[in-house]
What does this fold into?
Amino acid sequence: MLGMPDAEFEAMCYRLIGLEHPDAIRPKAPGDGGADIVLSGPGTTYARCWQVKHFTGAINWTQCRESLDRAKRTWKPTQYTFCFPRDLSFKEQDTFDGHFRGQEEGVEVDHWSGDAILARLLGSGAGERVARTFFNDPELDMTKVMNAIRAQGPLETAEDALERLIPVGEFLARSDAYFAYPAATHETGQPGHAPPPGTAMSVFKVDAMVTTRIDAVPRDVEALERYGPEVRIETTPDEKGVRAAELLQSALQAGRAVSISEGVDVVVTQAPPAFEGLVGERLSGGTLNIAPADAQTPPQAAPPPPYEARFTVETGSGPVVLDLTLRPAEVPPEGFDGALVGSLGGLTASAMFRRVEGGGLLKWNFHFAPDDSSLRDRVAALRLLRALSDTGRLVIADRGPTNRPDVSAEMAPAELHGDFRALIAYLEDLLVISEWASVELEVPESIDAEGVATVARVASLIRERGWLVRWSDVRLRVGAAEMEKLAAGGMQLAVVRTLAARINGRVVDLGFTHVVLTEYKLRVVTEHEDGTSEVRIDPPNDTANEVFEHLTRQEPRPGKKRPPPPPRKRSGKGKRRPKRRR
It folds into this structure.
C-alpha cells in the first residue's frame, strides 16, 4: 500500500468502504469539503465521512486537522475516519489520541490503519476481489496456479465436467472488484446462452468443436467510468478499406446497423481488467458488426444518489428556506421513469422525471398530510407551503456533493383555506413558547377557541418580551432608613413576579416579569412598634399608571439597569394592544 499512487490508494479504500456501506458516495470536489467519501444519515445529516491520507512517511497532523475542520463545516458528520496506508507507531497513536480522540464535540474521530485495511482485503471474497484488482500478490498468484492445476482432472462424467468448471468459476469470481465475469460454453454452430443483461464486453474463443465465452458485467457505474471498453476502428489502405469506410460512415449517419467483413481492423484501447491483455492488440480477419445503441441492452444503471435539496421561496415577506433529503422512490409514479422523494414535518416533496424526445421532463410535487413529526419540523414545512402560495420565486439548490443544477420557477398567488392559515399561526405560536421555555410541546389532536387564544396571548408576551400593565397600588413594609428614602423620592421600586401558563393542559414555566416604578405617591398605612412601617405606593397621577412589565428567563438582580421598553405596536388603525390590569 505504501508504494501505490495516491489516486489508486484512494480508489481502493472507496471500494472497501462500498462493501460495508453501499450508499457511500465520492463527492465531485472532495478537496473542498474535507472528505473523500461520505455517507448520508437520517434527514439532512451525514452519518460518516472518510478522509484518505496516503502518508508513506511522517504523518502531517496539520493537514489532518484542516481536513477535519473543513468536513465539520461542510458535512457536519457524527463520525469521521482517516485512512492511513500503514500502522501508526505508539507515539503516532498517542499523538492521534491527543489531537482527535474524544476532543471533538459531537464527532467521533477514528482511523483505519494498514492492518485494518488489510483485514478488509483478505477477510471476504469481495475484499479479495479488491485485493486482486489493485495488487500483484505472490500469494494470490499461487491461488491462480492451484486453480489451473485443479482444472487438469479427469473428464469422464458430467460431474467431472462440473468439477473442472469450479476452479475456473472461482478464479473469475475473485479476480476483479469492478466486473463480474460469467462464462459460457456450447458446441460451435449451435445456439448458446445470451450474455447477461448489462454486459459491457464479451470475448469468444471458437474452434471446430466448441465455442467458449466470457462476459464482463459491470458491478456499478464506476466500473464503466474506469474500465469501460473502448476500441479504435481503422480501415485498410486499399480499395476494400475505402469501401469499408463508406459503409461505416453511411451507417453512422443513418443510425442503422452495418456488418463489414473486409477492409477494416479494430484496435482495443481500453478493456475491463480481465481482458487487459487485449489492449493494443489489432484484431483483423473477422467481421465488424455495429448496431444502434437502443438495440442493445445497456448496463444496469445505479440508482441516483440522494438529492440534498435546499428549497428557498423568495416573497415580499422575505425568504423561507427548508432543507430536505430526497431519495429514490422504490416504485416510480405512473408515467415517469423514476422519482426522488423526501418528507419532513408532514410535507412530502417529489421530483419526478422521465425521458422525452430531445431531452427530459422534471416535475415537482408538494403534498402535506399531518403526521407525528416534531413541532419544529411541522412549522418549517407549513411555512414553506404558505410561502409557495404567495407571489414570488422558488429556487431549488443542491447543497450536497452531487452538484445538480439549480431549478427555479416563478409562482403565482394561490388561495389558502382559512383553517390552514389558522393552523400555521397556532403552531408558530406554540413553537415560540416551546423554544422560550425550552420544553417539547406536543400538538394536540383537537383544541378549543380558548386554548388557541391562550397560546396566542402567551406567544405575544414572549415576542414582545413583556406587556403594558396598569398598576393601582403597591403595599410593602420598610424600615426607618428605607422610609426616609421613600419619602424623599430617592428610591426605585422593582416588582418581580414568577410567571407560568397552562398550555394544552401542561403548566409551562415562563420565567420572571419585573417592572421598575420611578414615580409614585407615598402614603403611610400603619406604623409598627419595631420601627417599621407599612406603606402604600400609588401612581403620581391618573396618566402615569401605565408601565411596561418585562419578561425574562433569569430572575432580575437588584440594581441591574432595566432595558428600555420595546416600541409600542398597533394591530390596526385606531387599535392599541390590550392592556393588562393587576
Q: What stands out?
A: The longest helix spans residues 418-437. Residues 154 and 485 are 118 Å apart (CA to CA). The chain has 14 helices and 28 strands.
